[in-house]
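Lecture 7, part B: from sequences to assemblies.

Below are the input chains for today's worked example.
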Amino acid sequence: MSDIDIARSAHYEHIKNVAEKIDIPQKAVMEYGDYKGKVSYDYLRSVSDRPDGKVVLVTSINPTPAGEGKTTTTVGLGDGLNRIGKKAAICLREPSLGPVFGVKGGAAGGGHAQVVPMEDINLHFTGDFHAITSAHNLLAAMIDNHIHHGNELGFDLRRVAWRRVIDMNDRALRDVTIGLGGVANGFVREGGFDITVASEVMAIFCLATDLEDLTRRLGKIVVGYTRDKQAITAGELEAPGPMSVLLRDALMPNIVQTLENNPAFIHGGPFANIAHGCNSVMATKAAAKLADYTVTEAGFGADLGAEKFFDIKCRKAGIRPNAAVVVATARALKMHGGVAKDDLSKENVEALKSGCANLARHVQNVKKFGLPLVVAINRFPTDTDAELQAIQAYAKNELGVDAVICTHFGDGGAGAEELANKVVNLVEGGTDQFAALYPADQGLWEKTRTIVREIYGANDIIADKKVRDRFKELEEEGYGHFPICMAKTANSFSTDPNLKGAPTNFDVPIREVRLSAGAEFVVVICGAVMTMPGLPSKPAANEMYVDDEGRIQNLS
Amino acid sequence: MSDIDIARSAHYEHIKNVAEKIDIPQKAVMEYGDYKGKVSYDYLRSVSDRPDGKVVLVTSINPTPAGEGKTTTTVGLGDGLNRIGKKAAICLREPSLGPVFGVKGGAAGGGHAQVVPMEDINLHFTGDFHAITSAHNLLAAMIDNHIHHGNELGFDLRRVAWRRVIDMNDRALRDVTIGLGGVANGFVREGGFDITVASEVMAIFCLATDLEDLTRRLGKIVVGYTRDKQAITAGELEAPGPMSVLLRDALMPNIVQTLENNPAFIHGGPFANIAHGCNSVMATKAAAKLADYTVTEAGFGADLGAEKFFDIKCRKAGIRPNAAVVVATARALKMHGGVAKDDLSKENVEALKSGCANLARHVQNVKKFGLPLVVAINRFPTDTDAELQAIQAYAKNELGVDAVICTHFGDGGAGAEELANKVVNLVEGGTDQFAALYPADQGLWEKTRTIVREIYGANDIIADKKVRDRFKELEEEGYGHFPICMAKTANSFSTDPNLKGAPTNFDVPIREVRLSAGAEFVVVICGAVMTMPGLPSKPAANEMYVDDEGRIQNLS
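Predicted structure of the full complex, as structure tokens:
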């Protein structure tokens, strides 16, 4: 059965009943149809003094084309925890609309580890991303309007730093010239569009602790510079007010359900490269107040996703994680051991053992944040017993951690019960001592060096004078206390996506440094960063339609 | 009290209870929070065999800066009908998001004749316009993607006819160059953005009778031409399927309530110039099946709005209107009689009588469609008794119709009870003999000439050879049976906005003819048509914010 067939044959509970499982009263849920809801601000405020439940991060080895299954493991673990009697909720990112029509398909889990209604989640959902697109583009319109009507703030037309966004894969909009057509249309200048998830508004949305904090952060966005390079902010344009008006409802966390009718918060979805790649602070904090166990994930592998989850999201929002799960698959480890994608179905224990070096470094990294952890082996049908045993033996003997075989994709929560039990043991062991990797008051250059040495295993960072100067400038401008948001390939610890396993003896070249003043981090870019995807020659869109019974077909 | 203060102090019924007033079962309403809903396709199909209730169009004299109050009269009449014991529902257009941040403010009525929740209706509402924006821009992305990947259909880059849309007032996007930045970003070409309400997808959305009809129409959109001028359609790009996927939920009619808790359908909102300016056929047909009286409005004055409502919407969708209300104000009639805006508060019966010529022509026009009608005088505080009596006397003696004074703005439905009684009398009189103005099989040139002579009072249409050739081409290409969608100034019967009253002895110059193959009409453009507004020097946005209690402030 396809994912969508499984999703359709499942029994759905009304969202108010799902919410009641974590004691959210019916009137605190604003419904969007029977199966989607938002949890009201009033209710969230009313529980804000409660102690937090336990928070578990699901992260993974460096992703490969073989697939790891981080989202399905998050869903499976959530269902598994509920099955063994824990009141658990999961927190995921909202999928981006554009890529659904390209290659990627949706992002609501798969098999028997899904969140539903998957069509809604993958399409407009509760409109959050549309609200973010609108807020972002209102600011853009206000900038060009300001310039058109006299440019009192003195924008240098060559230094407008705020692009526009659209939630669509549209490569033709990456670089555009705007303001053509004569005086009535404003001033001609270069511009461009990013996909909505790459918007700084998205990052701000996901880090804001409430509406007030959202508005405060929006005001700090640097939208451009004067001719003498003085920053101009969104606040100076009086944009934070109307942007917050557009985002007011969106900032309430969305609640849906897993196939096993357990609560799932799906809220926010920033890029995992130029942003921090985690669902909203609003959702994670809500879940932590309401559930005994909150299971959440972070984008890409642990080198990027987990590091940013800990050093940016948890540190800034005061979230205290208690344990981590590192997802791996035999197939992906074989790729890290040098096996080509076409040969993955053949048993190859030696290559797998060699690829375990990738797993090892991620496990050691997570330990550096003070967290107990377990490896989840997301089982595929082609995996052999010898391969699975080899991973378990490696984890136990070389890393001192357990590796649990999970079959949630085929079996739902039952396939993750052993993992759930292991997670509960870790958490109840009380050994967690979460700490960020670097202190906030370290210099920006030093923080970046700490990340690449401690997490990536690199020798050092390298950068030309212009980039090094920018680090200094940002410190002089008062941004030295911001955490670092690394942007590099997800496929390797290094900046070369082809260097699998656990590369050593390399440097990390820094190409560019960008300020996200509202998100309150400094983006350090180490490679090409694509902020507007394109569609493939045969887009997934071509096959999609609504059938005679009103069902969406070929959305995957 | 401001509109928003009145709206906030009102008692709101849960939307399921509102829907029950016209016998919609609770389970047929998909909730979006407590006060907004969509009526399910299944339920609409289940009532499709019922006979239609009565349909009343609210239209007006040519709009002036003095304001007419067509929307408030629609709301007031709906409430008035309910007060006198009729089961009535109103149908309005959804407001566009962009202009809310400019000058205009929202469009949910005013005073004690409003639809609520006004903040939601004026902002994201149920996401319909975002869905339309997404569907429109998916098609745009698929076009440039097709060209990028080989251009099998042979688009002439200079003749791509599909622009992009955004629901924001952003003049800098009117004319842009896209595809810059190198090979990976596609081919450089000219492009541009319209505001979402100007999208042909919006017009199609509003004319589609069901999802299947929507998909069929989307497939017919002409998106560009080959070098030898052969049309290329959205269907050839396999775009209608995924576009319908994006629009599936949006096409269900939205239901909200008036301040007096009566049902209001608010669905779709096409431009009243390059499109037909009426709410969706889905909503009007739903209301007609469910209510005894459906009160709806059309954009601009009766010369544009009512003509298109009758000749495009009613004719194509098989809606049979039974009566019309022509809204006028003493102030607006004085402006048509030559009074300057600053002098409107002074009594001036002579100017008013002279301005009644404008009213007269609209009344005569509506009669040409075979409908009984009443004039609604939307009373303003500065109106004098002499002025109001003059309008009533003119209507009675010169036009043979009643003119009823309405005070719904200040008094709600009670202020429109007399109007409601009059409408019921007209309808129950059974004198309606609705007929379109011109037969479908008349030539496109002839149809246009019929409209300008019969409705505008012009001598003839004039156009240069290029435009006349285009009329012929469209007939040769098989579009001769389409109705005409006139695009001209709303402020005058003529194409000169300064010609108030009832001008005579003028021609209507045609500047351009555009095909809307999916909407199934031919747009005849007689003047400048603005499809992307800009923001003013001090946008309304600047004053908006969310207050400490989560309320949106300064949205009007």
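Note for the exam: The first strand of chain B starts at residue 29 and ends at 31. Keep this in mind when comparing with the next example.
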